[in-house]
Design a protein that fits this description.
3 domains; Arc Repressor Mutant, subunit A; alpha/beta; two-stranded antiparallel sheet; D-Maltodextrin-Binding Protein, domain 2; disordered C terminus; 23% strand
Amino acid sequence: MLPVLDNDHLRTLIAIAESGSFTRAADIVNKTQSAVSMQIRRLEERLDREIFVKDGRTARLTLDGERLLDYAYRIMRLNDEAMAMFREERLSGRVKLGVPDDYAERYLPRILARFTASNPGIEVAVICEPTEYLVPNLQSCEIDMAIITHSDKRGAGEVIREERLLWVASQRHCTHEQRPLPLALGRDNCNWRRAATSGLAEMGVPFRILYTSWNSAAVGAVVLAGLAISVLPESAIRPGMRVLTAEDGFPDLPMVKIALLRNPNARDHVANALANHIIQSLDNLSYETRGMMLAAE
């Protein structure tokens, strides 16, 4: 018979991964540091795998640790769902959710409409900022959770959706044939911008950046007007946009990973209810997004 994973140990694993420290995790789970270390040792003994390695003053997940973290998130989410199912009282409270404006435009109407209908006692305060600003806001406890563009440099977060990053142009214009190629992209520290410009540079395609904005609606308007081309995740493709491929002379782009990053100190039933709803909602968008992509192509 296979050994059973202890939920308490998995909570501690998540706390360490999200805080980056055994010491900070001990405060989060209300245990001593030695007790936290003992729980991780027991997990490692049960799995016969090393989960963490020291990286200076921080704790870094091993490859096996990252795989276990994914299961830990899923197990704890199921645990919370099961407990919520049998709770008779209605949840009430307030949650602060951070989200970039482009994700807010695409995902929030659906997410909040359904969540509010099923949880009328919970108030969701939404803060729209770029991912670069949301991460420090979460670290300073100004928000409870954030939907962000995942990056290994930003710490542990649960990847809840993956999409293709695509080159897009107007269907009514031949902007993609211009040289130098006019681009509408995010700011200098935007990962999508870096992927786009480095790909074009490697192919020797001359380009110029005409429009710079964090606002996806503004970028989309520029593309549809035939003033520039851009890169967008597949769920952001709008009617009137054309997807450009290798056949059009454009390089492949990396996948976009969307993650839910949570404040380790904000894991009560109210916050867990919203987090679970966000994860389920974004996962359920996959089939619909594919249909939109086929229509756009």
